[in-house]
Amino acid sequence: MSSLTIKNLKKRYDDLTVVNSVSLDVAQGEFVSLLGPSGCGKTTILRMIAGLLDPSGGQILFGETDVTRLPPNRRNIGLVFQSYALFPHLTVFENVAFGLRRQKVSGAELDTRVREALERVRLGQHGDRYPRQLSGGQQQRVALARSIAPRPSILLFDEPLSNLDAQLREEMQIEIKRLQADLQITSLFVTHDQHEAMTLSDRICLMSGGDIQQFASPEEVYFRPANGFVSGFVGSPNKLQGRVSGGRVALAEGVMLDAAPSMLEGAPLTVTLRQEDIHLVPGATGELSGTINLRIFEGASVQYVVSLGQGVEVLARVTSRGPLADLAPGTQVALEIAPDRIFLSPAEVSA
Amino acid sequence: MNSSRWLGAGLVLPATALLLLLFLAPTLLMGLMSLRNYTAGTGVGSDWTIANYLSVLTDGFYIEIMARTLFLGLVVTLATLLLGFPLALFILRSSPAVQTLTILLVIFPLLCNIVVRSFGWMVLLSPNGVINETLASLGLIAEPLDLMYNLTGVVIGLTQIYLPFMVLLLVPALQNIPADVEAAALGLRASRPRTFATIIVPLALPGIITGSILVFVLTISALVTPRMLGGPTYKVMATQIYDEFMTNLNWPAGAALAFILTAITLGLIWGANRLAARYTKGLQA
Amino acid sequence: MIPRKPTLLLTLFALLVLVFMNAPTVVVVLASFTKTSYLTVPPQGWTLDWFSEVLTDRGYRRAISTSLTLAAGATALSILLGTAASYALHHRLVRGRDAILSLVMAPLVFPAVVIGVALLQYISMLGFRGQFWILMLAHVLITLPYVVRSAMSSLTGLNPQLEEAAMVLGSNRFEAFRLVTLPLLKPGLVAGGIFSFVTSLDNVPVTIFLLTPRQTTLPVKIFASVEHGVDPSIAAASTLLVAGTAIALILAQKWVSFTRFF
Questions:
Q1: Which numeric CATH code is attached to A236-346?
Q2: Are A85 and C159 in contact (CB under 8 A)?
Q3: pLDDT (tens digit, 9 = 90+) per residue, A176-203?
Q4: Which residues touch B266 (CB under 8 Å, ≥6 apart)?
Q5: What are the start and end residues of each CATH 2.40.50.100 domain in chain A?
Q6: C53-261 CATH
Q7: Which among A208, B114, C60, C151 is placed 20 to 30 Å from B214, CA to CA?
Q8: How far does CA B75 lie from the centroid of its chain?
């Protein structure tokens, strides 16, 4: 077990930069998620750490050891793939034993350690089966057992849960969290799912366009997003186009938002508002008010489409057991948004 | 560059070297040979000439052989199409069990040796062969029919030999026609034959083209069957190439003929690929 | 196409075509059992004499053993060379992937007789005429495309993360190939190998140019014998070839559907 440090890691293909000088560190036993949209470079970083891809520059350290130029088989890592990548011609037992056999573990010790790994993922009885005889969730648990059996110093996850259905995914999240807490393995988890990252991680490294946008605890990332991208990616945001007007933000003619932009008067900007940060006050009128257009019951929460006039609409979300859960369409509401929950960024150039 | 390049080079080297040394080099050498002069009696000369090509392309003897070869290719292609299309339809419309059995009966002859099958046709077609004997014993003919050592025998033999290719290419081509399209045509009150002619056949055309070119190309380069069923006097390009090299020892003429055969073959395959690609593109757009 | 039952006319026509397609083989097999000294179908009486004649004849025995050695050797070499090349081409370990692939596939579209005469001329010039290893390499040339095609399609069907998983778990590239990729390629390689074996066993238009007067293969011997007149021993020899092919076909069925070779 060791810490993981990345220094100025780069990956370039001709004139396309996929990873742009990224540095991050994962403490011994820590669980870090690399979160971001597809194409942000997160999988590239993971593959470079695994040794499956050569970096264009920078360094990768396991503890104090520089592994940048080591082949994957000499890095002693565990890697859990999105496709599970179980060997279809080998039994579950032999799949788990694969890494141990490469370490020349044999006989009774091999047997004990394979059983131990399988017990950990509650598949002790399935050693003789072949992967195709197992369900998707079971297969991913075998993959997990296979990656921890050789006692890797670092465990990497490449979107391991995205092939599972929602319910199974939650069960597996808990399973992974428990396993990691028990074993205290330094872990790096790549995902595009913010809930997954929040659930699992000690810290989240949010990436976009080959750069780190914020590297902090889940709470920090959620409550204090470093920039417009982070606020737009985490939570369920409204993204609105506005313009600086009289030192405040105009979403449309007469629809004003109480915020203090640092841009020049008249500059276009993008406003990011989390749905759950919009507080609705029924019956009231205020500076920012509108009428409820649609009510959508989602189970744990209720979502409202609120029309602010001039064609501007925002989504607001409240808990379904609260007092605001039953507003009928047509209800007049005032919107209250704490100034520190409004995120302004220069208008995005439309792609 | 790095280790994986060396590994890659090492892995492809044996196969590539084999192809370069025993395929590309011989072909190029034959290209040179076809440009050498030849004198009967003394053999291959050391002068460069295009006389071999000129003589092959102007001499009535060679022209007749080439014309006969191409005609044979045409007849065999049409015959395999006429026999293969209904068989492909039958395969598609049969129950799975019949389908498997039929496909097996199509593949089995394909894998059987061409010499064996040609020999089988000799047994069937010769003047005192099975067919003539049967017809005679039934009193239908007085004299045995000339079924062998002529165009008839070679066409029958080659049709049987290359029919499996046609069927195996037509089956997927027909299978890929969406049922909706056919249903739409019938729904628009097109008659069955009209639907067949205006919908099924055009949509199966890429498969028909591929199959036809393959059969044509295989037919014009066939050596064994024309020799066995055509005999020594019924000459086609492949048998003539064989004779130039093995009997006449006029290698430059043989090389020129071989190059012309190769040019026709590759030209047709190239053209067919382009045609099929264009046609498929049109269908998708 | 709209599923529809075949009409009676179509069924009858298909039946006739199937008879046409299989008649020559059936006739040869039947003729090999006749008691007469000339070929006749249906056979008059049943005997295995012609088979024992073929199997005790020195010429036939040598032809059969040459054919089998040639086919086995060419197939083994094709699998070795073809798998290695396919692996490198699939993983893009070399530049010029398409050029190399076209080169390897080229003997498939070249007229066989042209390959035969080109080789004849080339090896005569190099003074290798009549060497058995040259003949074997020539057979590798014409069987390699089948193995490469089969191996490439098997490799394409493999999850690329399997080899990565093996490497991360501590195998080097070679171990990853031997322990994971190779076992998974086996069905494809066996199918390609059987097809390559049959192709080699059948070949006349390349082989005939490269033999010396003293050596021959079974199909070439049958081909040559026919010119000197036919008798039931030729039918018996042919039947042996058919039986060999049938066994290969049954074996191949077990592994894959081989319609994809066309």
A1: 2.40.50.100
A2: yes
A3: 988 888 999 999 999 999 989 998 999 9
A4: C109, C110
A5: 236-346
A6: 1.10.3720.10
A7: C151
A8: 11
Interacting residues of A267 by C-beta distance below 8 A, sequence separation 6+:
A243, A244, A261, A346, A347
**Residue owning tokens 């290893």:** C133
**Strand A186-191 and strand A154-158: pairing?**
parallel
Interchain contact, C100 vs B16, CB within 8 Å: yes
Q: Domain-by-domain residue ranges, chain C?
A: 53-261
pLDDT at C261 over 60: no
Query: Rounded CA gap, A57 and A68, in Å?
Result: 9
What are C101's two structure tokens? 């692939």
Confirm or reject contact between C159 and chain A (CB < 8 A). yes
Looking up tokens 């890592």, which residue turns up?
A77
CATH architecture of A4-228: 3-Layer(aba) Sandwich (3.40)
User: Which chain C residue's Cα is nearest to A98?
Assistant: C169
Is C27 within 8 Å of C19 (Cβ atoms)? Answer: no
Which of C167, C169, C183 faces A89 most closely, judged by CB atoms?
C183
- Local structure of B39: helix, strand or coil: strand
Helix axes B130-137, B114-125, angle to 10 degrees: 20
CA–CA–CA angle A67, A70, A76 (5° rounding): 75
Q: What DSSP letter does each residue of A45-80 carry, written as one string?
A: HHHHHHTSS--SEEEEEETTEE-TTS-GGGS-EEEE
Q: Tell me the pairing of strands A203-208 and A31-35.
A: parallel
Write down the H helix ranges in chain A: 42-50, 92-102, 107-120, 136-148, 166-183, 194-200, 218-223, 228-233
**What is the value of ipTM here, to two decimals?**
0.86
* Single-letter code of the amino acid located at C97: R
Going from the N-terminus, what domains does chain B have, and what CATH number goes with each? Answer: 51-284 (1.10.3720.10)
Chain B contact for C214, CB < 8 A? no
Tokens matching residue B258: 């071989």
Give the DSSP letter string of B149-177. SSHHHHHHHHHHHHHHHHHHHHHHHHHTS
- Rounded CA-CA distance C121/C130 in Å is 12
pLDDT tens, A109-153?
A: 999 999 999 999 999 899 999 999 999 889 999 999 999 999 999
C219 Cα to chain B: minimum distance (Å): 6
Question: What residues have CB less than 8 Å from C10, skipping those under 6 apart?
Answer: B86, B89, B90, B93
Q: CA-to-CA distance for C11 and C17, rounded, in angstroms?
A: 10
Report the SS3 class of residue A280: strand
Residue A48 tokens, joined: 């470079």
